[in-house]
Design brief:
With 495 residues, this protein is an alpha+beta fold. The protein has 20 helices and 21 strands. A seven-stranded mixed beta sheet has the order 17-18-16-15-19-20-21, with helices on both faces. A four-stranded mixed beta sheet has the order 3-2-1-6, with helices on both faces. A two-stranded antiparallel ribbon has the order 4-5. α13 crosses α15, α15 crosses α16 and α15 packs across α19. It is globular, with a radius of gyration of 22 Å. Belongs to the FGGY kinase family.
């Protein structure tokens, strides 16, 4: 199986084999995914991503492999629009583009938070698709006048490969326009923002075959037709498939540019309590839902490193973690989900300003800044894990961490210290592995998600982190709660 996994900073193509020894993967291609600012607008370079997918196919051919199928997963909420002749209308906007700022508050005042949440069960984030489309409509965007089809990023890239325009369930649920109770796009919300329902197709479930490679691509690359599967196309949905859990009740943290923490449930938890805590109910593979909360994640650290690189103060990741480990503990704590950390740019001064505003020492050197980020994330993870237990009426024995962020050993250990429970870290390529697993479920090689998790557990290493230094982490957690005690910091939104 060929899995394309596209993150907000990079993409990769992995080839997977399933045999009696388990699952084996091989990285075929890795590439950057860098947004492009044109004028005042921030876009995804979608045609470059399409080119990289084709390059992945070419490299697979050079290795003498012919995948049985392929699947694509990516980040959520962003989309492209097709016109009457099936051509893309403009480059998709990036969810961090500033034109969407403020629209969420407007729509919530018009409809109320309760009404929107009752119909979608989705966390309030200012860049959700609902608010992106409302912005374009109210600005009179010519794109919407010409659009005949709405496709999210994996849908769009699949369309380039196959010519088939199909929406997929897990990604559709992230838009805050899909009603999980009715199983359809929500007509009331679409009508309110003035968007036609005809733009949207039925959202197919993960594991559905949605075409095969275009004949022109097969001819250009010298390939036979390869079936294309709609996997769990939201990358977190794929990552959760790859959580090597042994029990039905488990908590996970998909850790990368974003951190997403939650648990897997059979039905969406749409309640006043989950609304107040600003949790989300996103679709999962196998008819499940992901009760989770978005946390800003390693984006803050990544932006600091990019800032230092621009200033000629670049530092390797390994060296930065070494300096962070040596820096004084708990000198400067902050809420990673504070709105000031959302945009790209001068991240170090924002951290320092937060600390100044809260009467703390301002971290000055790179090690101190990195330590403040990682400790603040670990403490936020504990808060969100407690909320997850509260909402799901469960108590978890530990936390499964998957994704590229688990290569940060300090973050894994400090998370275990913070939550006071074991952390089980692995696999690192969770989204790509879950992507493949859904493809194997589609062709019958794996019976269901639980057989897939057993195979994954037996195939990939998991590192155990036991909690340490409990008294000082307990004290730090109490201080963290006091520093982040505003309603906005705790719930993530005004409800």
């Amino acid at each position: 199986m060929l899995a394309y996994d596209l993150g907000a900073g990079s993409g990769r193509a992995l080839l997977g084999h399933l045999n009696d020894r388990g699952m084996e993967t091989m990285e075929i291609h890795r590439f950057k995914n860098e947004p492009v600012k044109a004028g005042e607008r921030l876009h995804w370079d979608i045609l470059r991503l399409h080119h990289e997918l084709l390059e992945g196919l070419n490299l697979v051919k050079q290795k003498g492999e012919l995948p049985e199928s392929l699947g694509i997963d990516s980040w959520a909420v962003d989309f492209g629009l097709l016109g009457s002749h099936g051509e893309l209308l403009g480059n998709p906007y990036h969810y961090r583009d500033t034109q969407f700022n403020g629209m969420m508050d407007q729509v919530r005042k018009e409809l109320t938070s309760q009404r929107i949440f009752e119909r979608t069960g989705i966390q309030f984030l200012g860049f959700n698709t609902l608010y992106q489309l409302a912005t374009l409509k109210r600005k009179g965007s010519p794109l919407l006048n010409e659009a005949e089809r709405f496709l999210m990023i994996p849908d769009l890239l699949r369309y380039f490969l196959t010519g088939e325009a199909v929406n997929e369930f897990t990604n559709a649920t992230t838009t805050q326009l899909y009603n999980p109770t009715t199983g359809h796009w929500d007509s009331e919300l679409l009508a309110h923002i003035g968007i036609s329902e005809t733009l949207f197709g039925e959202a197919v479930m993960p594991g559905t075959r949605v075409g095969q490679l275009r004949s022109s691509i097969c001819s250009d690359l010298g390939l036979s037709a390869i079936p294309v599967i709609a996997v769990a196309e939201h990358d977190t949905g794929s990552a959760v498939v790859a959580v090597p859990a042994t029990e039905r009740s488990f908590a996970y943290l998909s850790c990368g540019t974003w951190s997403l923490m939650g648990t897997e449930i059979d039905h969406p938890a749409i309640s006043s309590e989950s609304l107040a805590l600003n949790f989300t109910n996103e679709g999962g593979a196998g008819g499940t839902f992901r009760l989770l909360k978005n946390i800003m994640g390693l984006w803050i650290l990544q932006e600091c490193m990019r800032e230092w690189e621009r200033k000629g103060q670049g530092i390797s990741y390994a060296e930065l973690l070494s300096r962070a480990e040596l820096a004084p503990p708990f000198a400067s704590l902050f809420d990673p989900d504070d709105d000031r950390f959302m945009p790209a740019g001068d991240m170090t001064s924002r951290i320092q300003q937060y600390c100044c505003d809260t009467g703390q020492a301002e971290p000055q050197d790179q090690g101190a800044i990195a330590r403040s980020i990682l400790e603040s994330l670990a403490l936020k993870y504990r808060r969100v894990l407690e909320w997850t237990e509260q909402l799901s009426r469960q108590s978890f024995n530990g936390l499964h961490m998957v994704g590229g962020g688990i290569q940060n050993r300090l973050l894994c250990q400090w998370t275990a210290n913070s939550i006071g429970k074991p952390v089980w870290a692995g696999p690192a390529e969770g989204s790509a592995i879950g992507n493949m697993a859904v493809q194997w479920m589609a062709n019958g090689a794996l019976k269901d998600i639980w057989e897939a998790r057993k195979v994954i557990r037996d195939s990939f290493p998991v590192t155990d982190y036991e909690p340490k230094d409990r008294p000082i982490w307990e004290e730090a957690y109490g201080r963290f709660l006091r520093l982040t005690a505003s309603p906005k910091s705790q719930a993530g939104s005004e409800v």
